[in-house]
């Protein structure tokens, strides 16, 4: 690795990159989400027709992506808080990151059926 | 070896010839730029952490309700929203989530713009766009919660 192309690299930098990317993604989603929710002030039909988009298989995959982003940002955010406020935080930052990744994997596995199940049923029948 | 002590000895400070006053690091003086005279960035830093902790409960709880419980996203409809916003508890939940998530996200984006937008003009206009979108979204979302009408039709 040539010197100077990465800021330190390794776990600390990549978790920061992922935290930043997921934060921006969630913010953009939230902007659209408040607009779609505002349709309840237009008419029940306008709201229901738009929310129907959320129930399509392609968007279900995007929702799973949103869950992935929110879960990582939330768990890693707690890790950032621990690094800043817990006296042993910096010493265990790496272990805490792998705890975050482990928890994230477990929660993502648990979310797969509830979030993607209806999409799988729609695409493959039954 | 004794270079330091010989220098300080040769200065010969005394009540009549006091050592120059050295400001503590980062003391605010008349010459401190306007932008750094307050503790705004410190409060922002603390806010990101406190709001983040609260948002863990609010947003993960929201996702659990909307995507997992009761048939997941398939049950979401106008009638479902009407049922939820019949309760002041969920109105308050959504309202606090709206304000905290928007301010947390907007402050995060402000940091990111400051990091990457190098020209003064670009940075200024990107932040104006961000603030406009944020104020608009927070006001619209607040209005929708308070003026929701289940009998709109
Ligand atoms: C795909 C996943 C999501 C679904 C299906 C969903 C669904 C809904 C629904 C049905 C409402 C109407 C009120 C209610 O039932 O509480 C709502 C409101 C709201 N949601 Fe979500 N939500 C999702 C993700 C999120 C995320 C990730 C956030 C935060 C970053 C969020 C923030 C909000 C806010 C702030 C409101 C209130 C909007 C307003 O004031 O007009 N939602 N959501
Ligand atoms: C779910 C609970 C959440 C937690 C625990 C959390 C925690 C944090 C923390 C501690 C930071 C500061 C990182 C730093 O100073 O290095 C941060 C940054 C950020 N957050 Fe969150 N957050 C949460 C939800 C959200 C939501 C809902 C959004 C979007 C609306 C968001 C968007 C951002 C952005 C854009 C940044 C700036 C990232 C950067 O400067 O690299 N976060 N978050």
Automatic annotation (TrEMBL), chain A:
A GO term from the CC aspect: membrane
Keyword Flavoprotein: no
GO molecular function: electron transfer activity; metal ion binding
Record keywords: Heme, Iron, Membrane, Metal-binding, Transmembrane, Transmembrane helix
Pfam entry (one): Sdh_cyt
One GO biological process term: tricarboxylic acid cycle
Record's subcellular location: Membrane
Membrane-spanning segments: 21-40, 52-75, 96-116
Cofactors required: heme
Entry keyword Protein biosynthesis: no
The family this protein is said to belong to: Belongs to the cytochrome b560 family.
Protein's name in the database: Succinate dehydrogenase, cytochrome b556 subunit
Species this chain originates from: Streptomyces triticirhizae
UniProtKB/TrEMBL annotation, chain B:
Subcellular location: Membrane
Pfam families for the chain: Sdh_cyt
Top-level taxon in the UniProt lineage: Bacteria
Compositionally biased residues, Polar residues: 1-16
GO cellular component: membrane
UniProt xrefs under InterPro entries: SQR/QFR_C/D, SuccDH_FuR_B_TM-su
GO molecular function, one term: metal ion binding
Name this protein carries in UniProt: Succinate dehydrogenase
